[in-house]
């Protein structure tokens, strides 16, 4: 019996006796009890109902491959080579990078219920508690080289924003790879995008697109975020199914990536600028050891952020740059 099997049984929000859980899982009640004791440490509060059994205080929407694939349109389903759903990984991006090293990886998707060593931009960690986030990575092999990937993370941001808008969320994009959600009149971080690229500047290269999206967020998770954080449960009741979100994201990206290879970022430039969280606002730019204030403008056809400073326009590329509202 894995801990994931137990969580999936309890995830319906109903009360289950220790005997029922043991019989279903084929283990003793003592073995069930030992596993139940681990749930609090996993940020999954458990309620013991005297004489009846145990229930998770919050029901969980477990990931199911068959439910995800069944929601895909025919063309994206044909393009999807393989779908992995794991209980716990250090990082879904690392999982797919290893797949590429093994000669696979192209058009493969990996989802995890929890990850322990996920990475955000600039080396920041992105660890998540079980079942509350959509932890998603997709691998794609490009023939045009690294130079052809300019602006790809921004195009992915547009695709994710469009998906969330269809669900009824009001979102904005923060350069270069964050999605913000409006909660109580202010923008808070909802999702992050991390691209990891290996290969040649001009030859074939492999890209792993990692996305972390907060569907739900516990108080511990908000404290760990280190910045104002949001989840879809803050504004949508009930929130969309994680399986439906995963299917929508797979469909969007498997449509986007072949088109991006043909056209590059300009086809998404206008859509990104229309959702620019800080357009026309003064921002603090952190660039290496430098820090200065500038006025944020739009992004150019390569995905660089244009800012006005001392009467001149500067183009900021990715890398070790971050911006905050002034």
From TrEMBL:
<comment type="function">
    <text>Acts both as a biotin--[acetyl-CoA-carboxylase] ligase and a biotin-operon repressor. In the presence of ATP, BirA activates biotin to form the BirA-biotinyl-5'-adenylate (BirA-bio-5'-AMP or holoBirA) complex. HoloBirA can either transfer the biotinyl moiety to the biotin carboxyl carrier protein (BCCP) subunit of acetyl-CoA carboxylase, or bind to the biotin operator site and inhibit transcription of the operon.</text>
</comment>
<keyword id="KW-0678">Repressor</keyword>
<comment type="similarity">
    <text>Belongs to the biotin--protein ligase family.</text>
</comment>
<feature type="binding site">
    <location>
        <position position="115"/>
    </location>
    <ligand>
        <name>biotin</name>
    </ligand>
</feature>
<dbReference type="GO" id="GO:0016874">
    <property type="term" value="F:ligase activity"/>
</dbReference>
<keyword id="KW-0092">Biotin</keyword>
<dbReference type="Pfam" id="PF02237">
    <property type="entry name" value="BPL_C"/>
</dbReference>
<dbReference type="InterPro" id="IPR013196">
    <property type="entry name" value="HTH_11"/>
</dbReference>
<feature type="domain" description="BPL/LPL catalytic">
    <location>
        <begin position="64"/>
        <end position="261"/>
    </location>
</feature>
<feature type="binding site">
    <location>
        <begin position="91"/>
        <end position="93"/>
    </location>
    <ligand>
        <name>biotin</name>
    </ligand>
</feature>
<keyword id="KW-0436">Ligase</keyword>
<dbReference type="InterPro" id="IPR030855">
    <property type="entry name" value="Bifunct_BirA"/>
</dbReference>
<dbReference type="InterPro" id="IPR003142">
    <property type="entry name" value="BPL_C"/>
</dbReference>
<feature type="DNA-binding region" description="H-T-H motif">
    <location>
        <begin position="18"/>
        <end position="37"/>
    </location>
</feature>
<dbReference type="InterPro" id="IPR045864">
    <property type="entry name" value="aa-tRNA-synth_II/BPL/LPL"/>
</dbReference>
<dbReference type="InterPro" id="IPR036388">
    <property type="entry name" value="WH-like_DNA-bd_sf"/>
</dbReference>
<dbReference type="InterPro" id="IPR004408">
    <property type="entry name" value="Biotin_CoA_COase_ligase"/>
</dbReference>
<keyword id="KW-0547">Nucleotide-binding</keyword>
<keyword id="KW-0067">ATP-binding</keyword>
<protein>
    <recommendedName>
        <fullName>Bifunctional ligase/repressor BirA</fullName>
        <ecNumber>6.3.4.15</ecNumber>
    </recommendedName>
</protein>
<keyword id="KW-0805">Transcription regulation</keyword>
<dbReference type="InterPro" id="IPR036390">
    <property type="entry name" value="WH_DNA-bd_sf"/>
</dbReference>
<feature type="binding site">
    <location>
        <begin position="119"/>
        <end position="121"/>
    </location>
    <ligand>
        <name>biotin</name>
    </ligand>
</feature>
<dbReference type="Pfam" id="PF03099">
    <property type="entry name" value="BPL_LplA_LipB"/>
</dbReference>
<keyword id="KW-0238">DNA-binding</keyword>
<dbReference type="Pfam" id="PF08279">
    <property type="entry name" value="HTH_11"/>
</dbReference>
<keyword id="KW-0804">Transcription</keyword>
<dbReference type="InterPro" id="IPR004143">
    <property type="entry name" value="BPL_LPL_catalytic"/>
</dbReference>
<dbReference type="InterPro" id="IPR008988">
    <property type="entry name" value="Transcriptional_repressor_C"/>
</dbReference>
